[in-house]
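Data's thin. Show one?
=====
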Amino acid sequence: MRPLNKIILRRGLAVGLLAFCGQLLAAVEYQYTVLEKDTHDPRIFTQGFVLDEGWFYESSGHYGRSFLVRYPVDGESGAEQRLALPRDIFAEGITVIDERLYLLSWKAGKAWVLDKNNFSVLATHGYNGEGWGLTHNGEHLIMSDGTDILRFYSIDDFALQHTVKVRLDGEPVRNLNELEYRDGLVWANQWQSNNIYVINAESGKVEAIADLEELQKASAARAGESVLNGIAYDRKRDAFWITGKYWRHRYLLQFESPQ
């Protein structure tokens, strides 16, 4: 029989090693630099936010007043275009793939595929549960539903392929909302939070967190409703445009981990 003190020592070393490894694997807190600050329409209850080929696409929610809007990044190279949605539809997340724009509804269980240039409807798909945020990785549509789950759907027919549970230090991260995908990572807003969570798209592990409370306070147009909710990757600048519901501004941010 091994001496008791050696067993305790080895267990202590094991516990210490696990704690040390846990610290190494903990999510990093991203810092950010504001590269640019532009005006944002404070009347938009931002649900989805995408940048594609020099155009912003944005969806605005609420029953009876949901709409899609398309406007140029520079504000000068084209006219704004809007599409009012049916009064019984609460618009949610959007994403753009090639010439198609995908739009979710909150509780109707419907997704629409539209021509991104003129908003004409090309197809309609159904899904179970609620629709919140939407992005894609080139192979799958990636959707949040307000829980701690990311759902991966077929781009062609919106058939559910698989799901991923999102975890931060082993705990579920709920209320995942507007999404953006880049290089194997899903950047996610959290409803009623000033945080952006950077999630490994395969494992669901939160690898980084960014706190944007200062920007939220500087841009909120309506107390209690002007929450952070808009992430659009800018490939030309290799940075992210950030905005929120009823925000007065949008910001181009460069994120980096502390040295």
The two ends are 48 Å apart (CA to CA). The longest helix spans residues 4-25. Residues 1-24 have pLDDT under 50 and may be disordered.
